[in-house]
Write a structure and sequence with these properties.
By secondary structure, the protein is mainly alpha-helical. A two-stranded antiparallel sheet has the order 1-2. The protein is elongated, with a radius of gyration of 35 Å. 30% of the residues are buried.
Length: 316
């Protein structure tokens, strides 16, 4: 049940995050006077802050024993900035007017001034937002096997919240209560999410699945291999190494068939007549196949000559 509650909290957090983005884009449009540049600036700072938070603060998820508690404090930090953002943007507008009339700032530098001011204003909260996903993944995942599944689930839930927050802020809240009240609403959501997360962090084990709560399975000490099993293992490894060694050699189907028979444990000595019988070919064809394998260094002729001449795989 509490696991479900945390998922709902992350849904609300995603909604609040995009409510900020909509409102702050409007605020920067009023400050800069250029809507397209305001949108591009806010989007760039948001994405940069998300990346920075995930990289810089996300690493603490692996070192903390209470990731849900850390997540709660991140949400409270976002809420604090949200409550202060109205005053911050008022001062940002005054600062931009001063810089606008500064002689040493040429028109070509104004895009960089806009990005710099937006970075100062938005980088802290967006960095905190970027850290929430990796921290919450750590709260949900106690074993590496579940990281992929839980990451996808959390990201999807947060994205759904972001979509809903964007639509709600743009088409309902801003028109109904204005920019300032909308950002206060988002901050209130973050405040509630942070407080509830801190309360839930008192029993974080409930976030993990039953399998994870049971702990890792007991380590089973393998039984030693018998002599027959060890021999089979050596044969398999030798066969794999043999074909890897001769992967580039051009062999026909008869040669591959007989060689596999020899590698699988051919009883007795292999002569040209046995080759012909196994490959279902003439004696002359068997001799040509054997001679070609000797030239490739795959087969080696035995010491006995004449009709009793035998061949074996060259293991050198």
């Amino acid at each position: 049940m509490r696991r479900f509650v945390v998922l709902v909290l992350f849904l609300l957090s995603g909604g609040a995050g995009l409510m900020y983005q909509v409102v702050w884009t409007r605020n920067l449009s009023l400050v800069f006077g250029v809507t397209s540049q305001a949108v591009a600036t806010v989007l760039a700072v948001f994405m940069g802050g998300f990346a920075l938070g995930s990289w810089l603060l996300g690493r603490f998820g692996d070192s903390t024993r209470a990731p849900l508690r850390l997540y709660g404090f991140l949400e409270l930090g976002i809420a604090l900035f949200g409550f202060l953002s109205a005053m911050l943007f008022d001062n940002l507008a005054d600062l931009y007017v001063v810089l606008r009339h500064t002689e040493w700032i040429t028109p070509g530098l104004f895009p960089f001034v806009r990005v710099g001011l937006a970075g100062v204003a938005l980088l802290v909260p967006t960095t905190l937002m970027g850290a929430t996903l990796p921290i919450l993944i750590r709260a949900f995942c106690r074993t590496p096997e579940r990281v992929g599944r839980e990451t996808g689930r959390l990201y999807a839930i947060n994205t759904v919240g972001a979509v809903l927050g964007t639509l709600f802020a743009a088409f309902v809240l801003i028109e109904a209560i204005g920019l300032r009240a909308t950002v206060m609403t988002a901050a209130g959501i973050n405040l509630a999410v942070g407080v509830i997360s801190l309360l839930l962090s008192r029993s974080e084990a409930v976030l993990t699945s039953p399998v994870e709560q049971a702990g890792a399975p007991p380590v089973v000490k393998p039984e030693p291999l018998s002599a027959a099993e060890a021999g089979t293992l050596r044969a398999v490894l030798f066969k794999a190494g043999f074909w890897e060694k001769h992967a580039k050699d051009v062999l026909n189907a008869r040669q591959i068939k007989v060689l596999n028979r020899m590698l699988d444990g051919f009883e007795g000595k292999l002569t040209s007549s046995k080759w012909a019988k196994l490959a279902k070919c003439s004696q002359d064809t068997a001799n040509r196949d054997i001679t070609a394998l000797i030239e490739l260094g795959i087969l080696r002729k035995g010491e006995a000559g004449g009709r009793s001449t035998s061949y074996r795989i060259d293991q050198s």
